[in-house]
Amino acid sequence: MKSRFMRSAIAATGLIPLCLILLALFLPSAAHAGSDVKEGYDENTEITIKGRIAGISRGERGPLILRLDASGKAYEVITSTPWYLMREDVRFAVGQELEVTGSKYFGGDGNIYIIAARFRMLPSGKEMILRDNDYKPLWGRGRNMKNGRG
């Protein structure tokens, strides 16, 4: 007769392969979603919009996302990491008006996204550049730039 400990050990051992299979199935989709933001800048889809911030959000990790209402449409504007915005002394507020230039794409969730390359705060005119001439994020590894100027 097997002890309670042995039955628990056998049950746990059977769960490990199941957990590994589930992990393998779900990790590629999470990695792909992240690659939309990191690798997805396409200068051929670049647009400039002007609107008001309707919401500010951020997941557990990742960039700060602004919900911008512009010309009757809602856009999810992907800015940069919060630490970079704080370092550059950038603060957003609901109701604030912005002009954003970035790469537009349609997310799998049905939202319109813009990966911001730069934005201008209105009416002050303060400009913030988020990506270099090769469309790489300025907060990336090995960069030490303030407001896009070295």
SSE blueprint and pairings:
Layout: H1 4-39, E1 46-57, E2 65-70, E3 73-78, H2 82-87, E4 97-106, E5 112-122, E6 127-129
Parallel strand pairs: 3-5
Antiparallel strand pairs: 1-2, 1-4, 2-3, 4-5, 5-6
Task: Write a brief caption for the model.
With 150 residues, the protein is an alpha+beta fold.
Description:
This protein is an alpha+beta fold and 150 residues long. The chain folds into two domains: 1-39; 43-129, Nucleic acid-binding proteins (OB fold (Dihydrolipoamide Acetyltransferase, E2P)). It is built from two helices and six strands. The chain has helices spanning 4-39, 82-87; strands at 46-57, 65-70, 73-78, 97-106, 112-122, 127-129. Strands 1-2-3-5-4 form a five-stranded mixed β-barrel. The longest helix is centred in the N-terminal third of the chain and has 36 residues, at 4-39.
